[in-house]
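Exercise 7.
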Amino acid sequence: MFLILLIEFICFCSLCPECLFYTLGNLEKSGRQFGKLGSKVSIAYWHARYNLGMTISHSLWILLVKYAEEFCTIDDYNWDWSLVYLAQQRFHF
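Solution. The predicted structure, written as tokens, is:
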């Protein structure tokens, strides 16, 4: 089963090779509609509410290592807001 999920994830990543990370969920309440929404994929700008099941690209990892001290001192409790800050202030794409 893991291998099947991994293959599906790799195929999904090929839909957006320039994306720096992927999330597998968000904090929006969709009720019990997994059967209806479970096969949907969205490509959108990231917001801190999309922080569930996050995977990051190697490119983003390199940037996080570069700004590690700043990342850890911005908002140590809310890592997602630290990431938002770095994306807005330090990452230039």
